């Protein structure tokens, strides 16, 4: 796993994760918003949280999915985070021993509750058409991979933060010891890189979302307004700009503020090509 701290490898993984998120959005966008899927008690699922509140259908399906995935050790991987971490079942496969890459503080950083809230309240209304088409099960099962992909992408900020810490240890150490969250945020932010990410995601969404005819050409435009698209590229770009990257940087700051709790010693070796501390977002 030490190779995961190569910034080239991190960038490659983040770019692949863009594809996963976009395709997940395309799949979910084929159904209407279907508000009852996200409303507790709207659909009487046989599941309740620890306070006795009935789960929404999405929560029920998400938790049940994690029960299966957790049993085959998905959430033992340092780049996977459960939305219901306290409810995971015993594993049927023996755990894998991963080489230490991240500081131990990484184990306690999980912002999936915020990701779930933002997905339901901010992403879905723009991603889907308003209304109710009755496809509740399909909607919920397609929401799950979207949430898993967003969670993985955002929590990958831990790897980004560790790579940046190892590349600029003195600068980050000074800010961490001062508890300067704003200074850490400023140091790790590269606005030009972020701009390029947003534009790349916009272009991917425009490309992946086209209908292609039997001849291999894009389907004819509707009303002369351009190609038919399964998902709005501007919507995907806004999700990245306003949600994905800010939450990723939030994870980075949380991680870095705790990074010296264990003494600040390097955990994994930064690959040679990362010595120049080229930013990854």
TrEMBL record:
The keyword Amino-acid biosynthesis applies. Its EC number is 5.4.99.5. InterPro entries: Chorismate_II_sf, Chorismate_mutase_AroQ_euk, CM_AroQ_sf_eucaryotic, CM_II_prokaryot. Pathway: Metabolic intermediate biosynthesis; prephenate biosynthesis; prephenate from chorismate: step 1/1. Keywords: Amino-acid biosynthesis, Aromatic amino acid biosynthesis, Cytoplasm, Isomerase. It comes from the Eukaryota. GO terms for biological process: amino acid biosynthetic process; aromatic amino acid family biosynthetic process; chorismate metabolic process. Coiled coil: none annotated. It catalyses: chorismate = prephenate. It is found in: Cytoplasm. GO terms for molecular function: chorismate mutase activity. One of its GO terms (cellular component) is cytoplasm. Residues 137-252 form the Chorismate mutase domain. NCBIfam families: CM_pl-yst (TIGR01802). PANTHER family: CHORISMATE MUTASE (PTHR21145). This is Chorismate mutase. It comes from Edaphochlamys debaryana.
């Amino acid at each position: 796993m030490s190779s995961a701290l190569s910034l080239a490898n991190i960038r490659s993984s983040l770019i692949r994760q863009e594809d996963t998120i976009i395709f997940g959005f395309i799949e979910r966008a084929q159904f209407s918003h279907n508000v009852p899927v996200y409303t507790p008690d709207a659909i009487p699922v046989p599941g309740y949280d620890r306070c006795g509140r009935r789960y929404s259908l999405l929560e029920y399906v998400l938790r049940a999915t994690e029960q299966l995935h957790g049993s085959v050790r998905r959430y033992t991987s340092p780049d996977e985070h459960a939305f219901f971490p306290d409810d995971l079942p015993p594993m049927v496969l023996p755990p894998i021993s991963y080489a230490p890459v991240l500081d131990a503080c990484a184990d306690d950083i999980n912002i999936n509750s915020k990701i779930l809230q933002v997905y339901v309240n901010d992403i879905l209304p723009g991603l889907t058409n308003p209304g109710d088409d009755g496809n509740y099960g399909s909607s919920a099962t397609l929401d799950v991979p979207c949430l898993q992909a967003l969670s993985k992408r955002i929590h990958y900020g831990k790897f980004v933060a560790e790579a940046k810490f190892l590349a600029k240890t003195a600068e980050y150490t000074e800010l961490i010891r001062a508890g300067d969250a704003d200074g850490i945020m400023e140091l790790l932010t590269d606005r030009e890189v972020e701009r390029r990410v947003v534009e790349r995601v916009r272009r991917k969404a425009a490309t992946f979302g086209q209908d292609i005819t039997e001849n291999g050409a894009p389907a004819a435009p509707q009303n002369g307004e351009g190609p038919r698209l399964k998902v709005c590229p501007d919507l995907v770009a806004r999700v990245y700009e306003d949600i994905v990257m800010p939450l990723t940087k939030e994870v980075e700051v949380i991680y870095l503020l705790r990074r010296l709790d264990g003494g600040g010693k390097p955990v994994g070796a930064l690959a040679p090509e990362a010595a120049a501390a080229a930013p990854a977002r």
